[in-house]
Design a protein that fits this description.
globular, about 200 residues, mainly beta, lipopolysaccharide transport protein A fold
């Protein structure tokens, strides 16, 4: 069971229904819960709820904080606009989307969707990811758990700070962890290309 609660001093009902919003709010919060546990808190500059369409639109800046099953904060999403789809409680972040996980990973895109049922962050759009290790990856399509610990990019490319052993890659052999720990040096003829300036 998922419940949403709103808190605002400035909310008001507007009639008639249709293309005109049934409800509006300014500088407020919505809290998403699953079985009494907070799963997300949405803060927004402006909200319009359309009851017939079962959709809530946000603009004026949107910020969503996600919480894991233990109730601990896991990630933060910011965007210019957003949409809450009431039938399934999915949230879509639109325009200048930035996600920062508590593990230090940052994702940028123009559109992301939080699937409440799967507890996943998804997009088919172009993404740029910077990991905690300062690797930069980009590509089209992204799927992750909401803590961004288990993620994948469809059609990825990127830049890494790590040295690559191209000879070993050509032979289908990569250096083992034992080689790295024993001081075996990895050589790369593309260090200047693969490293960021």
């Amino acid at each position: 069971m998922v419940l949403f609660a709103c808190k605002s001093d400035n909310q008001q009902a507007i009639a008639p229904p249709g293309e005109v919003p049934d409800q509006q709010g300014w500088n407020s919060k919505m809290t998403a819960t699953v079985n009494g546990r907070v799963s997300a808190i949405i803060q927004y500059g402006h909200m319009e709820r359309y009851a017939n369409q079962r959709v809530v639109r946000f603009d004026g800046g949107v910020e969503v904080d996600f919480y894991n099953a233990e109730g601990k904060h896991s990630s933060n999403v910011k965007s210019k606009r957003g949409t809450l789809y009431e039938p399934n409680n999915d949230v879509e972040a639109i325009e200048n989307v930035v996600v920062v996980s508590d593990s230090g990973m940052t994702l940028r895109s123009e559109r992301l969707r939080w699937d409440q049922q799967q507890q996943k962050i998804l997009t088919n759009d172009f993404v740029v990811i910077t990991t905690a290790e300062r690797d930069t990856l980009w590509g089209h399509g992204f799927e992750s758990d909401q803590s961004m610990k288990n993620w994948s990019i469809l059609r990825p490319t990127g830049v890494t700070e790590k040295k690559l052993a191209l000879d070993a890659m050509e032979d289908d052999k990569l250096p083992s962890n034992a080689d790295k720990e024993s001081g075996g040096e990895q050589k790369s003829s593309i260090d200047s290309v693969m490293k960021r300036p």
